[in-house]
Amino acid sequence: LWLSSSPSPQFPISILQASVKMTTEPPKGLKANMKRLYRLITEDQFNVCKASAKYKKLLFGLVFFHSILLERKKFQQLGWNTIYSFNDSDFE
Questions:
Q1: CATH number for the domain formed by residue range(s) 26-90
Q2: C-alpha span between 91 and 18 (Å, rounded)
Q3: Which of 16, 34, 55, 70 is most buried, by CB atoms within 10 Å?
Q4: According to the model, what pLDDT value does residue 60 have?
Q5: For residues 44-72, average pLDDT
Q6: Distance (Å, rounded) from C-alpha 50 to C-alpha 54?
Q7: H/E element holding 31?
Q8: pLDDT tens, 33-49?
Q9: DSSP class of residue 1?
Q10: Is 11 within 8 Å of 37 (Cβ atoms)?
Q11: Rounded to an integer, what distance in angstroms lies between the CA atom of residue 90 and that of residue 67?
Q12: Is residue 70 classed exposed, middle or buried when 0-12, 13-18 and 19+ CB atoms within 10 A define those classes?
């Protein structure tokens, strides 16, 4: 039996104690964020513009900038003076 769950205080401790636990975490860092964001872009979205060289440079800049925002979020008050919740929907 495979179970998946997010961390929750309501999850029964008896099941946790009797289980083999496995965790997975997404890769971290600027490069991993950029790869993940590029995977969100479809081929049609990538080739939509007639000035493809300029569009691809602009898209790279946007992906790079969004990845930096996501990395800065890790530092909380050191990265920003207000807590922002940047996520993939902001990129879209």
A1: 1.10.8.720
A2: 41
A3: 70
A4: 92
A5: 86
A6: 9
A7: helix 30-40
A8: 899 888 888 888 878 88
A9: -
A10: no
A11: 11
A12: buried
